[in-house]
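wait is this the right file?? whatever heres the structure
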């Protein structure tokens, strides 16, 4: 029996909500919010920065509402737009994956709420769902959803770099999954170092180059850490490493994965139709934009690039029968700026 494994960067699947957006429409006057600010703590490098803030809203009739919010760099981060959330749910339903690995999920509550409110109405049911809080100050974590039993999970968020600090900016989440043949699959989902450079427009060309070199160095360290973790557990068979790797499969930064005898599968696959806003499947309209497979489009300074950031690497004995990218229906993205990818494997 084949097992379908998918990866999808859900692009800020947050449950955080805006008072103005979410308060009942019957409230005539805009409420005032007293938000326990943590901007100063964030600026000072306080490790608690980004942790929940308790807020109170005073309604026009004198009643008070309280809630818990998180901020980032002093700004309130709103929940994902319901229309975008519904669209990524339709894409997930069309994927029909047995094991779904997600990136940029806020927390377990956000995942469970999304599953209850958006996936289940579409007939999608993942009994096994897990998010472990990671290291990212924006709280964009990695997650695994599975129809197959997850029998064990491990978080490697504290795996150290050469200085003793955590090497993963988010996490490396490991799940042991009971495959239909009765043997375990070892699935690792990660989200490697982003290419984003804060305030890049204020930097000199030399500073930008140094920042890019630092990013590549960190991503290489993260790939090396994944290989080290596999060796530590003596895992050489039935291994799947997947996620948003923020680089191309042939990049030097991912050399450690190739040296660990893993093979990236999506780059040699094909595209399949994805659902539009109405849920109708639409064939790939963008085949002429890039000669190579891609899941992410980026446009900056008048230059557009296409790259396969969302990848699935497997150990050599796993037989991969299909590999696909579910293509977006609009060029800017369908609920996410990434396209999901998946493979079907036939465990030995």
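ok assuming it is, sequence goes like this
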């Amino acid at each position: 029996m084949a097992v379908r494994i998918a990866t999808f960067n859900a692009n800020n699947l947050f449950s955080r909500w805006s008072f103005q957006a979410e308060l009942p429409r019957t409230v005539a006057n805009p409420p005032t919010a007293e938000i326990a600010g943590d901007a100063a703590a964030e600026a000072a490098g306080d490790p608690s920065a980004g942790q929940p803030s308790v807020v109170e809203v005073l309604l026009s009739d004198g009643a008070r509402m309280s809630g818990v919010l998180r901020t980032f760099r002093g700004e309130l981060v709103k929940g994902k737009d319901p229309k975008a959330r519904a669209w990524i749910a339709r894409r997930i339903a069309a994927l029909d994956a047995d094991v779904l690995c997600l990136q940029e999920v806020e927390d377990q509550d956000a995942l469970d709420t999304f599953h209850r409110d958006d996936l289940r109405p579409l007939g999608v049911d993942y009994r096994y769902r897990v998010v472990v809080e990671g290291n990212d100050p924006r709280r964009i974590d990695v997650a695994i959803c599975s129809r197959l039993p997850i029998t064990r999970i491990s978080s490697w968020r504290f795996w150290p770099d050469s200085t003793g600090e955590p090497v993963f900016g988010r996490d490396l989440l490991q799940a042991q999954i009971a495959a239909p043949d009765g043997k375990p699959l070892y699935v690792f989902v990660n989200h490697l170092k982003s290419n984003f450079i804060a305030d890049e427009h204020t930097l000199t060309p030399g500073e930008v180059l140094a920042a890019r070199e630092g990013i590549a160095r960190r991503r290489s360290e993260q790939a090396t850490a994944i290989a080290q973790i596999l060796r530590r557990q003596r895992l050489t068979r039935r291994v799947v490493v997947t996620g948003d790797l923020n680089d191309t499969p042939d990049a030097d930064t991912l050399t450690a994965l190739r040296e660990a005898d893993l093979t990236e599968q999506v780059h040699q696959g094909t595209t399949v139709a994805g659902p539009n806003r109405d849920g109708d499947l639409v064939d790939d309209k963008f085949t002429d934009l890039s000669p190579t497979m891609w899941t992410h489009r980026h446009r900056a300074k008048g230059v557009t690039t296409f790259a396969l950031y969302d990848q699935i690497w497997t150990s050599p004995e796993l037989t991969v029968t299909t590999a696909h990218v579910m293509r977006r229906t609009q060029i800017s993205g369908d609920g996410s700026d990434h396209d999901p990818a998946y493979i079907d494997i036939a465990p030995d």
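The CA atoms of residues 37 and 74 lie 7 Å apart. so i think its the right one actually
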